[in-house]
Prior knowledge:
4 copies of one chain form a homotetramer.
Chain A lengths: L12 E11 L2 H11 L3 E6 L2 E5 L9 E5 L4 E9 L2 H14 L2 E5 L8 E5 L5 E5 L31 E9 L2 H12 L2 E7 L5 E7 L7 E5 L8 E7 L3 H14 L3 E7 L6 E6 L5 E5 L14 E4 L3 H5 L2 E2 L25
Parallel strand pairs in A: 1-4, 5-8, 9-12, 10-17, 13-16
Antiparallel strand pairs in A: 1-5, 2-3, 3-4, 6-7, 7-8, 9-13, 10-11, 11-12, 14-15, 14-18, 15-16
Pfam families (chains A, B, C, D): Glyoxalase
Protein name (chains A, B, C, D): Metapyrocatechase
Family (chains A, B, C, D): Belongs to the extradiol ring-cleavage dioxygenase family.
Amino acid sequence: MTAGNGAEPIFDVAQLAHAEILTPDMEGTLWFFKELIGLEETERRGDSVYLRAYEDWYHHTLKVTKASRPGLGHVAWRTTSPQALERRVQAIEAAGLGEGWHEGDLGHGRAYRFRTPDGHPMELLWEVEYYRTPAEAKTKLINRPQRRPLRGVPVRRIDHVNLLASDVTQNRQFLTDVLGFRLRENIQLNNGKEAGAWLSVSPLVHEIAFMMDQTGSRGRLHHVCYWYGYPQHLSDIADIFSEVGIKIEAGPGKHGISQAMFMYVIEPGGNRVELFGDAGYLIFDPDWKPITWHEEELDKGIIWFGSPLPAEFFLYGTPPVEVAEPAHADD
Amino acid sequence: MTAGNGAEPIFDVAQLAHAEILTPDMEGTLWFFKELIGLEETERRGDSVYLRAYEDWYHHTLKVTKASRPGLGHVAWRTTSPQALERRVQAIEAAGLGEGWHEGDLGHGRAYRFRTPDGHPMELLWEVEYYRTPAEAKTKLINRPQRRPLRGVPVRRIDHVNLLASDVTQNRQFLTDVLGFRLRENIQLNNGKEAGAWLSVSPLVHEIAFMMDQTGSRGRLHHVCYWYGYPQHLSDIADIFSEVGIKIEAGPGKHGISQAMFMYVIEPGGNRVELFGDAGYLIFDPDWKPITWHEEELDKGIIWFGSPLPAEFFLYGTPPVEVAEPAHADD
Amino acid sequence: MTAGNGAEPIFDVAQLAHAEILTPDMEGTLWFFKELIGLEETERRGDSVYLRAYEDWYHHTLKVTKASRPGLGHVAWRTTSPQALERRVQAIEAAGLGEGWHEGDLGHGRAYRFRTPDGHPMELLWEVEYYRTPAEAKTKLINRPQRRPLRGVPVRRIDHVNLLASDVTQNRQFLTDVLGFRLRENIQLNNGKEAGAWLSVSPLVHEIAFMMDQTGSRGRLHHVCYWYGYPQHLSDIADIFSEVGIKIEAGPGKHGISQAMFMYVIEPGGNRVELFGDAGYLIFDPDWKPITWHEEELDKGIIWFGSPLPAEFFLYGTPPVEVAEPAHADD
Amino acid sequence: MTAGNGAEPIFDVAQLAHAEILTPDMEGTLWFFKELIGLEETERRGDSVYLRAYEDWYHHTLKVTKASRPGLGHVAWRTTSPQALERRVQAIEAAGLGEGWHEGDLGHGRAYRFRTPDGHPMELLWEVEYYRTPAEAKTKLINRPQRRPLRGVPVRRIDHVNLLASDVTQNRQFLTDVLGFRLRENIQLNNGKEAGAWLSVSPLVHEIAFMMDQTGSRGRLHHVCYWYGYPQHLSDIADIFSEVGIKIEAGPGKHGISQAMFMYVIEPGGNRVELFGDAGYLIFDPDWKPITWHEEELDKGIIWFGSPLPAEFFLYGTPPVEVAEPAHADD
């Protein structure tokens, strides 16, 4: 971003605004998100239910839509200004990946639709509707949009999305070059391929990551992540998941990459959800050099300590696909 | 910042680069920072010792300089680009608060000196020297600049500075209007005065705060803050402080303002140091409306739960001043 | 207990079985215990509701009974065997403090009633009824009697009771000499009076404490304590208490005495409840010499770090009494 | 223990006093225990170094002795009284497993030597020497024998030993019948064999466990465990282990059995060490019915959540033995 060519960084994208996931089991998915990890339901319309964590300020950060198969609906980004929105739309159109404006949805105004090179649906927007706190949910902690829920072990805010891509490099370059994301960390294999990339527009290590889809599929979702900020809450919710029969795929543990205390679970609709248990590390250096993990460092990068990732972690995404023959995690 | 007038936000200041504090007791101050909270010494020159936390990437984040009285040396900010540096220098000069360029110091290149309206010395810079990790301190966690120290309960990185000011409004306006900081939270008294303001250039609630100096003094330091990120470490270091006789002024506890798990101690040189025990909350909304705490909400704002702040917290700063007559915390 | 005279220790009392508290606000008290700190209701009869924490194995550990004023109903101890019960009943009768057998209550068989010298009602019993887990609450964690509740921030088990006494020494000697408790820690004032005593029949520092009642009253309750075991949960529930308006009297903080991470709140019925946030320390030494805190050590004994105790902590108990003139915490 | 036959429980053994381990790498072993997990060295004599954690009250809880191979030196238990010692010696002699009195060691008086049926060397003693705190280590927290060390991430006290046994049932019966231990939890295989047993003389779930030695060896050590009491410290020390190259065999994670937050590492001398990160659960019920894990429940019993145990966990012990053919964890 702060390239050797002296160009200044782009500050046009501000944040991950929301994600939409698809579920064939709306009841199960809502039970997971509302009763176990404490999301709040804001509104319903048609086949969709709009949810947010108790420290999310907007109308929703998760839209759950009924579908025949699990997967990604879309990812929405908010820009830093109306002008920034116009600039980025122009850049997307120049890149040939734009799909045009739509008139908005519950919770936000008009948005510009586009796709990543891999085909993941995204949108860019400026106008958002803030959550309107009902009287009984108001708190004296006035920098919190509502009271902490008394259900389950409630997450605090949306954190990031992780997408599978047939070509990591192509997709992350689209984000850096066209949208102004910074590459924070990546994985470089000995065969020259980039196996993963973590990018952000803020001091977070990532609001989005791309990981190589070893099934060769395009446009799939790896996971959506909500944030606790405290490691104890991973133990608390792991305890509950084990009791109610939610499959913990991996964790709690600590990634080397991003230094995140992680846990991965599969929600009843089939989508993978990550729960993030601490602050990770934050990047304030405006001239950050991406951290590249090579194969010989990768074990520690994937798991710094704690629970390993099963092979499935590197194959399963939504929508699920048939895997013709067993792929290898280290291919 | 994202004012109703449609002007775009300024993204020219990137981060708190380092702070300099003055100490009449160099040995005691170094014992505190190195042996108890685990800072690493990078270098010494003249009357100064340069320190950093183990997750700080630059040459130093704390410069400790011998002096007859404790207090603030200066605060240094890094810009987002060389061009941004030039722009902000022009703005400072236009505001009449510039003092000119100096040729740099250990750990960074040339820097532009200026003062806040209250007289706190500051500097703005682009060129920094990164910490060079000695072989024995290298870690396989390659996104961490060195191994975690085995001494005391080591902090992870610098977080923010808090300055006392004779006029909070004037000083925070200088930061927002001239340097592009965003006002995140503030305290508005019934008498119309602003008693405190928390500002940032990143999703952190603050890299800097101003609090009203009730002694009427100008340019004093309230505290420098280092960050743990985990609440347990506040208990751990509190245990040690109580054993070795370091005065814990307040905490562990949780502020309403900024939602920080805090602890305040006075280091042997006389300066107040805050240790920050969790992630607080982060602000990603590019159109953030400042949270204003009025007098009737202030109790919860100051202490959401846990240890109260003693009257001294609102009076003591460095250098210390004679207090003619007892001021009241709620004046 | 392991007295210099060579007598062997008594092992006849095994544990705190349950406590009964009185409340003038049954609805409020149940809301507090069930919705906020997650107790489970087992049964109701007459004016009483029987509750237990999710890791309590018996029918109940808390009996809440409607009354005109808050206070202590009784404290029940389980012996280590039927024979031990008989021996202790004889000892109590010999001490002249017995009141006789009663036919039991929901959750346990016949019990022997007695009073402390100060008049606190107690009972001793052997036969207990175990909690019968309904199918939907069964967990694969078979050493846990039921699933962790999804309501509030649930406590795990009863920990101890703390009683106010007009004469600490007399009451704790009754427990050590007649019932076989061990004195673990106490407070010795310069005027020769014992201001507090912590006693146990297990490695816990206390299942019961006596503190001097500075109002001169007899037989009052200071608090009942439930146990979390993790410090984070004190922050979690403090957050909730602050939001819903439950008064946090003190904490989270750490006592020197017993090394407990504590928090004290007043439940809506008026009784003080302590929530214990870690493991404290455990005493395995069979020849333990009581730790005596003298006045010059007492500040650190009461608060090792964190939130101080307000004057009210040393005066308020249930039932509340009129305090003719302000007593001093350090009298 | 509280058998249906109406016999009263035995209360003669009070606690695990200390363990002795053998090391072929004294320097490495001491570096691990002193610099990383913060044990204090009390004394040296001959080929042995005596260590204790900062909350251990006696002269030592770990004796490290130079030897050609790693393994168990012995395990020492303290009785609840001198009379209890005599009673248990008689019982051991009656069982034919006694080896006679020896005149004591640094840190304790005369001790009676015996072996488990599997051959693990043990001793029983009453007279102990308390740690004498040097002036500079004294703390105002007078219920703590010394200040918390500033080295590494210091453990607080010894917790338990885990021994491999060719016949679990025979060994645990020796402990329950002859020494008065209570069986708390065990594993019952479908083939009728008992694969593990956890026993204690206190509310801890275990001061000792036996696990089936799948290599058919006798008298081996599986691990010695020290206790942190806080989950965060497992993350802290895991971070350090990963940096300095200490192999983390498993964890952090949570066992179903004993509900312990665990981590297992191999110290440089080759012995496995467990670090215990929370309070687990405590057993106060004097009539406790052992929790039996059958094969169909065993997965959750071994790992409730987090890091799985590698096959090696079930095979490796000290001294190491040649494994003729790969055994299976689930044999």
